[in-house]
Amino acid sequence: MNTATYQAAAPTKSEMNPSQLTESTSATPSTHRALVGTRQALPAHRTRRTAATGTLRSVVAEGRSYYGTGKARIRLLVLAAALTYGGGAAMFWLHAIVRGEQGPAIANAWHWILDSSLGFVGLTPVVAVLLPLTARLLKGRTASFAALGALFAVMTAPGPIFHNLIAGRGTPLARAATSFFGTDPGVAAEHAHAAHTHVAEPSAISSVIAQVGFGLPVYIGLAVLAGTVLHRLESRRATAGATRIADRGAVLATA
Asked: What is the pTM of this model?
């Protein structure tokens, strides 16, 4: 049979009966099935990535909307300062005084300022994210500030570990702080005594547990206290502003 005869004898798809057409289409190569499976899996991956991107954009947009006023930005700075410096004083007492965790051989007041300033720089972005989040999820003023303090306490759990890595005894920052603030004789004597008697510092795990356990009531209380004071000051300022506007309106009306 020559080529022309074979081509004439081969039926086209339009000439096939239904059973022949089914058999021809069902004989799909395995590579084709794999490609089909890959194309079907791609939309799910893209959907998850799109959802994550949408969530991030929503958080950023909500943050921009929340911090669109100067009042909100002042609230952020005041709360961050209360949590890092006020909470830093409590945490310094716990870790350095009670638990004997060592740092630079400087006076306790300078040590507290150093640690709290590092915390203010590193943790203010955390407060910036948590503040609008808790305000949106919890409408009650006290509840939202309490949630802010609780979440902040959990976020500071690895704080002792980071402190030892950044400002712990023997680190470049600790040596620079000692050179800048000067060596405190009492603290230096305590460090020498601990080294002479081979007193082991508390473990990292126990420090993290102590940080969260002690930090929860401290940070919740500070957040509620600072938030309540801010709210009252903002309310008084708003009332005073409304009174001044009303007085000016009355003066203009009688003029």
From this structure: 0.72
